[in-house]
Amino acid sequence: MPDADANVESILTGAGKPGKDPELTFSTEQEEAARAYARLSLDPHPPQNITKAEAATEQGKSYIALQKMYQANMSAAEKIQFDLIASRMPFPGSNQLVQEIKKADHAAKYFDMTASKQAKNGAMSLAEMMDFESGRRFRNPYWVIAMAAEASPEKLQREMVLMQAYSNELQLQNLRMMEKVGVALGQLLAAQTRAEMRPSIEAQLLRAQSTNAR
């Protein structure tokens, strides 16, 4: 996974070799790469901790307060990306749910065509499940054929089903875009926090260290 900690795809579609297919269920290695990207993109050099002796001084207490304020803002920025990563990790019971869905022949065929390696091994994430639920309809030619082959279906009803599937697809794509926007907003919050607070934190750190050294 070359340069995975510096590639946004690590958090969106899974780390791996360049040109690989997107994956929405991450392996343990992909999870680690995604977390490394989050740390590097948000706060590669967090404020250092001070000693107990330094923390006991008035200057040290002021430093701790600033550090906590900084960490609170960074926590909000981190949550966006870490929640995104969590949505790409397998959830308990996903295998049973997949097996139930695959009872429909057209869904089983679409699963075989598109499922991630992790999903095919029996574990699927919420993100991939949502993608699959939309894709197995509108993006699945076998589903279109199955709908057309229904016994005496009304043409208008069939069209409504197809349009609803298309609507589901649009909503899913909107969700994917909002995920990317969320990542970008979190990075902006992190950058703003660093720009606004790090100078004060570093100055207070020097005061705390110099006070304790006397």
TrEMBL record:
It comes from the Bacteria. InterPro entries: TraW-like. Residues 1-24 are annotated as: Disordered. This is Uncharacterized protein. It comes from Cupriavidus nantongensis.
